[in-house]
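Justification of computing resources. Each target in the renewal requires a structure prediction run like the one illustrated here; the chain below, 98 residues long, is used simply to show the kind of job we budget for.
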Amino acid sequence: MKKFVIERKIDGVGRLNDRELSGAAATSNKALAQLAPRVQWVHSYVTADRTFCIYLAEDESHVHEHARLSGFPATRVFEVLTMIDPTTERRDKMAQVA
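Resulting structure tokens:
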């Protein structure tokens, strides 16, 4: 499975309350159930007018199919090629020593 970051432009999403967010998650989960196991939702970050969702999928077309089924736009989709974090520096130094 490939990892994707999906930017969804949704005006006012940051003002949704817990019940509304729960409803949005239920809508997404319903669409995911139709696409399983080809697409998995990992988590989402919510900002004022966007969500940034982390998904696992066989390919980008499945991400777009989820957007169509759920009604949540996939404004921009990016395939994650690799990941770095603060420990990346140490891994590189360890490789140089070995």
